[in-house]
Amino acid sequence: MGVSWDEAKAFCAWLTETERKAHHISEKQEYRLPTDAEWSKAVGKSKYPWGNEWPPPEGAGNYFDDAAVANLPGEGWKQIPGNDGFAGTSPVGSFKPNPFGLYDVSGNVRQWCEDWYRKEMNEKSLLDKYPNLKEDGGGEKYRVVRGASWDVSAAERLLSFGRGGYTPGRRYNYCGFRCVLSGLEIVSAKDEKSSVPLESLPQSAPPNATGAQTLTRVYVKKYGVSALLPTDVFPDAKKLSESDQSFLQGNSWSRQTTLTFSSVREPLAKVYAECATEHSPQAPSKTVQYKVLKPTWFVVSGDLGPQADASLGFYTKGVKKDSFVVIMHFQWREDDFPFSEETFTAMSREFDGN
């Protein structure tokens, strides 16, 4: 509480350095603020963080209720019915966690996110209700805050999808932060020496984040891995996290752009050799243009040959996960969608078996 965005970022940097020196995290890991997209995932899909009903049930969180107005002067306060026992902030863990095990996703204090605030982040109904949310300074003046706080009682300000934008250098007695630990990097294909943490891409990254495609992080439930996928190509990608589905068909006229996840209990080198074999009975026109084998993963890409009046490209990555090799096989008709090298770099580095 009472910490600016700049100070929260400085704390994350200090914690990263401290934990690395103590060998508690690797050089590729770092602490940072959550992205707006990560916050959306954490808060869930219900209307409010606790569900769809109003007012919040007892124990839902620390909001502006009878406890908050008990010692305030005057009358006419519009508090939420009930008493959570705290007139102001409460210790973390005072209320039950959400289904993901996260405490105070809403209530207690608002929390800083990595992103710049843009008015388009909020729905029109919320912008009409609170015109101040339309002011975003061109998209690079305020930082996103999510969640509500101990001083909030209006239902519209407790909506799960609501965002605020605060000046990053200012402190507020109703705003704090939480850290997340990220562990991967994306290296630009244009500059192999420059890299940024993978999770600094929002869950729905803008097209220029990868050079071409909009990518979304998706959990593949059947194999317990996550992948960064082009959801403009695979709009049903969320089904991978909701069921044991392991196959997606692209949103294209040809129906030949597909994505498949599978696993085999074989040595990594053997699986790699099979994937890198050209002109097999299953793919007689297959040619390999790129292949690499590392101790814990491999990549093979190339061309499956002409199909009707167009060629099919493919990209396969296999990663070790316990005693299995989990495989992501992506094939596309080249006149369906253009895929940039940056897109494959991002997809490949995200798919690491975690």
User: Helical stretch count?
Assistant: 7
Share of β-strand residues: 25-35%
Strand adjacency order, main sheet? 12-13-17-16-15-14
**Anisotropy-based shape:** elongated
Residue share in helix: 10-25%
Give the CATH class of the largest domain.
Alpha Beta
CATH superfamily of the largest domain: paralog of FGE (formylglycine-generating enzyme)
Output mean pLDDT. 84
Estimate nothing, just give the exact number of structural domains: 2
Quote the distance from N terminus to C terminus.
33 Å
Radius of gyration: 24 Å
Based on the coordinates given, report the CATH architecture of the largest domain.
Alpha-Beta Complex
User: SSE order, as H and E?
Assistant: HEHHEHEEEEEEEEEHEEHEEEEH
CATH topology of the largest domain: paralog of FGE (formylglycine-generating enzyme)
Unreliably modeled segments: 184-212
- Classify the secondary structure makeup into a structural class: alpha+beta
How many β-strands, per DSSP?
Answer: 17
Q: What characterizes the major β-sheet?
A: 6 strands, antiparallel
Describe the protein's architecture and organization.
Helix content is 16%, strand content 26%. The chain is α+β, with helices and mostly antiparallel strands. The protein folds into two domains: 176 residues, Alpha-Beta Complex (paralog of FGE (formylglycine-generating enzyme)); 151 residues, Protein Transport Mog1p, Chain A. Strand 15 and strand 16 form a beta hairpin. The two termini are 33 Å apart. About 8% of the residues have low confidence.
